[in-house]
TrEMBL record:
Domain of life of the native organism: Eukaryota
UniProt cross-references to PANTHER family, sorted A to Z: SET DOMAIN-CONTAINING PROTEIN-RELATED, TYR RECOMBINASE DOMAIN-CONTAINING PROTEIN
Species annotation: Tegillarca granosa
Protein name per Swiss-Prot or TrEMBL: Uncharacterized protein
């Protein structure tokens, strides 16, 4: 019961589109909520169209950022090396056994 209380107090539950029209649950830490609100309130100042409802949007139509490519760019900038991260398409969880 303590774990359930911790999760309820520490995270917000959201759903995002997954493969085949399935919803995928995601947990958002509560300390990230204010940052998300800041992103949303400033999106038009950065050229994001008001009709684009994607949280991590791009300036083009209703597109979204590529998480893998964004993380790879940050790793490169930090001199960590993008080759040390793995694309989910290459992960063992997606490989057939």
């Amino acid at each position: 019961m303590m774990l359930k209380k911790f999760l309820i107090e520490s995270f917000k539950l959201a759903y995002m589109a997954g493969k085949g029209r399935k919803s995928v649950p995601i947990l958002i830490p509560v300390d990230v909520i204010e940052g998300i609100k800041l992103l949303i309130s400033n999106r038009e100042a950065f050229g994001i169209d008001a009709s684009n409802h994607v949280l991590f949007a791009t300036k083009s139509s209703t597109a979204h950022c590529s998480g893998f490519h964004t993380v790879a760019a940050v790793c490169e900038a930090a001199k960590y090396g993008a080759d040390s991260i793995t694309n989910t398409k290459e992960s063992t969880s997606d490989k057939e056994t």
